[in-house]
Predict the structure of Cbb3-type cytochrome oxidase maturation protein.
Amino acid sequence: MESLFLLVPIALIFVAIALKVFFWAIKSGQYDNLDTEAHRILFDDDEPDEAQRTAPKTSGRHPESDNQTDGKGS
């Protein structure tokens, strides 16, 4: 019974913090546009990113495979 005197105020504090964060998210516009992100996956990116255009072409091999030893040591 004594633990309830500690746990109930702690639970009320957690609820108050959760409500404050929720209302802050609503006020700051976090829930204003829910459709854009849902539809974004349906559209293809026609142009590659800048990083993909400037990245050097590789031969298809992993660079780490060149540095591996045959298990006998150096």
